[in-house]
Amino acid sequence: MKAEEQRSPSLYWLQQPPADWRARLADLSKSTPGEAAWAEAVALANYRLNFQLTNALATTVARLFRDAPDQILQTRPERLAILSSSTTTHLHASLRVGALRRGIWLDVYETEYDQYRQELLDITSPLHAFAPSAILFALDARHVTRGVQDCGTQSQTTQVLDELCETMQSLWRIAQERFDCPVIQQTVVPSLSSLLGNNEHRHPASPAAFITKFNSRLRDLSEAAGIDLLALDARIAHDGLMAWQNPSLWLHAKQEIALPAAPMYGDLVGRLLAARQGRSAKCCVLDLDNTLWGGVIGDDQMDGIIVGQGSALGEAFAGVQSYALALRQRGILLAVCSKNDERVARQPFDAHPDMILKHNHFACFVANWDDKATNIRTIARQLNIGLDALVFVDDNPFERELVRRELPMVAVPELPEDPALVPQCLADAGYFETATLTDEDFQRAAFYRSDAGHSHDTASATDLNGYLAGLAMDLRWARVDQTSLGRTVQLINKTNQFNLTTRRYTEAQVRGFMSQPNILSLQLRLVDRFGDNGIIAVVIGRLDEQSTVEIDTWLMSCRVLGRQVEEATLNIVVEAARRIGAKRLVGIYRPSQKNGMVSRHYERLGFTPQGERSDGVASVLDLDSFVPRETFIQLSEVSA
User: Which of 105, 341, 497, 594: CA 20 to 30 A from 120?
Assistant: First the structure.
């Protein structure tokens, strides 16, 4: 076992379990289910756990929280069904802990051995009774390659591949239609031996070559079908096949994933589930000295720091900066948190010729002599995002431990001492996992730079009204359409603070809303003199037989708070509701762990409180007497 553990995939960006880890687990097992116990369970999951410790934690958490009320949890519970052709029972604990690491309670169901197709098709099966909120297809290499060895030509192999792909597409469709939930497809473990070697692809009956082709096809087909991939083949290429596979386990128990690899497998799946809940990190907070460059800028001055061409160490730090910039370009915010004189800390970004990152790449720049936990709180506040959306990257173990202790909700990776390994560490950790990528993501960093301009102007404006009037704001609205669908679904599943009900919908569900005339599904985009802020709000409402539109979903990006967007949005909602025959609006507020900021939202907008219902607190607005709110925002309806 020691040899297996040595070569097994490691969650190396997490800290080693402390000496008292088992004692803490024992104390947890004796505690009463509650928010404090749940927080401790999440904390225990955020260590570098092996297979045995993972199973021990999963057993305790399952017993303690199985019947606990949802109020204890800060996220939506998940029910994952594994549709597999091999045995995956040994992965259940790791799947639960991989989700727990991200604050998600996970229940797992596994179909009977190689009965995934039958249970999916039979509406009376235990799978349907389980009612999964996510489905994972995990087919083993031998199952997928059945019949390939009988192929004598490449055309025959292609025909087998086409038929397999059509089968998978059909199974995906059935799963989506019957359960209306995200579907994850695991790529096939490339576990079968080659027959030719380097030119394996030339052998028409090669199972190894067939797996490579099938995995390639899965990427294109899953994209078209809206299926999330669990790219296990890519991970195995990184770790090595022997880190993931134990041929003896297959022969004895038909387990394709080796026991020591189970914690990594669970973490990979946990990332996907968390991404669909909007639990991925949004901001990378970077230290400066010996993190983005070698040396200390305050001591070594500009010409003494090490970065850029000319040395291996300088190129390594340039690589860290390049990776950070690539994260920014795909929508992750960058921030600086440094113990430095701010004027000195800014100099390299403005004047050093080999700096890849520039000052304008950062959404927030905090350099002073306060402790870093305090400054990280400042960063979260300035960016209007939660502390659990931050990843803190610092070479100094003291600073990392301080932030972990003071701000346990902030992700703090254990960095390798060699800066050349830091980009891969951040990639392996999966903090920034996302299931979808939209045009808005590529523009997000620029939006936050615009917000920095807003903040500066606010400070210098003589009065708020004058400032708002000078922004030249235009709120452009339309029904959700195919073009805006991806971003709309992303907002619904990621926005937590300004979200009146925190209801989550899949892409298929939102697409269904688009075609129903009695459902308002509105997307709103804010443009001002600083630029296009993108889609910043979504409102969904249903018209009933009493001419009432109940607002099922109202969410907004916190970036636009304080600009009268709430009032302008109400004017739009009233206009759209009147068009479909509404006489009243009913707004629902469902309290959550994070949306307390909107508890009086409807009251502030003139709604009359009606009291609590089973689904939240209701407020009503009569449209006959409604007078549009005055704002400094122009409203523009955009044709589909």
Answer: 105
